[in-house]
Specification:
There is one protein chain. The protein is globular. The protein folds into 3 domains: about 110 residues, Orthogonal Bundle (Butyryl-Coa Dehydrogenase, subunit A, domain 1); about 110 residues, Butyryl-CoA Dehydrogenase, subunit A, domain 2; about 140 residues, Butyryl-CoA Dehydrogenase, subunit A, domain 3. It has 12 helices and 9 strands. The chain has a 4-stranded antiparallel β-sheet with strand order 2-3-7-6, with helices on one face. It has a 3-stranded mixed β-sheet with strand order 1-4-5. It is of the alpha+beta class. It binds flavin-adenine dinucleotide (FAD).
Length: about 375
């Protein structure tokens, strides 16, 4: 792929290409790679060719410069077949976003072209063993030492942690700061001496992609690795990118919800009981109707949030609604899809069990659904004050 999409027909061509790639390259291998928890190196190479590592990076830096709405549709398509591999470029694009949105001109010139091509691959590292939702409670520190910073601490649950080579790393440059968020800073941290990968974490689902613990011991970076060049901006920089992150997770949820619906739709027409296909029994019809409605509503909410993002509007509430609804839709559709498959839904020889294992992650990542509801409510009240 090359260049941005300029109109609906270019977007349609792009999505058609992604759909053909998904069917040709992903569908035949997904079950094997998922069950073996094997990293798909050759798929990563194909993603580079497709330009996915630069999907939302500006063309000026060698990316595709896609709007969020097109990017969301790509993620939906791939996730309907194999959600976990979208994490390989999604988390990476959060690193790109942090640099493009908040980096200095020199940081953008230095890092973005290699990130957009996939030569450098990585992600966003916020979570620690004792702090996830409460980001301001992280303990990792960066201490200024001459023209360098020295970083110490441990990150947990970092997507692409083992296979990636560079991360946007949230640390405390001032652990005593009050309010706590004013002591947070975001650094570009390439792998080198002092930065080691601890355990690769074993998971319920989201297989074939690495999620790891990252350990920093007297890791030294020059001061020009501080994103934006000013200390204390890390919390704002991190949460400022979360809207796109939420749209991305919502899109994964839509993909799973639609994927489960597709599998259930096919199965319900093939499987017969009491002399007719099960889709002709009312109990199954009710399930299919609910699944189809949830999947459609999730898609529309997500595209609505993406459109607000593309208009340059602050869209915490819309992105929160999309993320919350689409991830719950993924969870509900995957279990309903499994029920429609009867015993075969419980078999590793069918795909629905993978969707059922993958779906819960979408309720956790990029802010748990408990937090999404709090964000939605706060924004709703703010927009609707009493006169
Ligand atoms: C497979 C996987 C990949 C991940 N990848 C990354 C990554 O690449 N980078 C990264 O930085 N992180 C990553 N994470 C971590 C993820 O972002 C965190 O797990 C998430 O933010 C929740 O944090 P926690 O697990 O510490 O839960 P906690 O913050 O301990 O929350 C526990 C529970 O309490 C609830 N809760 C917490 N605070 C409140 C509150 N104020 N009000 C109401 N309820 C509350 C939560 O909703 C949750 O139900 C990943 C996680 C997983 C499972």
């Amino acid at each position: 792929m090359s260049g941005p999409v300029n109109d609906a027909s270019e977007e349609a061509q792009l999505l058609d290409m992604i759909e053909r790639w998904t069917e040709r390259e992903l569908k035949p291998i997904v079950r094997e790679y998922d069950h073996a928890d094997r990293y798909p190196n050759h798929i990563v190479e194909q993603m580079k060719e497709l330009g996915l590592f630069g999907a939302t990076v500006s063309t000026e830096y060698g990316g595709l410069g896609l709007p969020a709405s097109t990017y969301a549709k790509i993620v939906m398509q791939i996730s309907s077949v194999w959600m976990s591999i979208t994490g390989i470029f999604n988390s990476h694009l959060m690193l790109a976003l942090a640099i493009e949105k908040f980096g200095t001109p020199e940081q953008k010139r230095q890092w973005l072209p290699k990130i957009a091509s996939g030569e450098i691959r990585g992600g966003l590292a916020l979570t620690e063993p004792d702090a996830g939702t409460d980001l301001q409670g992280i303990r990792m520190t960066a201490r200024r030492d001459g023209d360098d910073y020295v970083i110490n601490g441990t990150k947990m649950w970092i997507t692409n942690g083992a296979e990636g080579s560079c991360f946007a790393m949230l640390v405390k440059t001032n652990p005593e700061a009050s309010p706590r968020h004013s002591g947070l800073s975001l650094f570009i941290t390439p792998k080198k001496e002092g930065f080691t990968v601890g355990r690769k974490l074993k998971k319920l689902g989201y297989k074939a992609i690495d999620t790891a613990e990252l350990i920093f011991e007297n890791y030294r970076v020059p001061k020009d690795h501080l994103i934006g060049g000013v200390e204390g901006q890390g919390f704002y920089q991190t949460t400022g990118g979360l809207e796109l992150g939420r749209i991305n997770v919502a899109s994964r949820g839509v993909g799973i919800a639609e994927g489960a619906l597709k599998l259930a739709t096919e199965y319900a027409q093939m499987r017969k009981t009491f002399g007719k296909p099960i889709c002709e029994h009312q109990a199954i019809q009710l399930k299919i109707a609910e699944m189809a409605t949830r999947a459609r509503a999730a898609r529309l909410l997500t595209l609505d949030a993406a459109a607000a993002f593309d208009r340059g509007e602050r869209c915490d509430m819309e992105a929160g609604m999309a993320k919350y609804f689409a991830s719950e839709a993924a969870l509900e559709n995957s279990i309903e899809g499994m029920r429609i498959h009867g015993a075969y839904g419980y078999s590793q020889e069918y795909d629905i069990e993978r969707l059922y294992r993958d779906a819960p992650l979408t309720c956790i990542g990029e802010g748990t659904n408990e937090m999404q509801r709090i964000i939605i409510s706060k924004n709703w009240i703010k927009r609707n004050p009493i006169a």
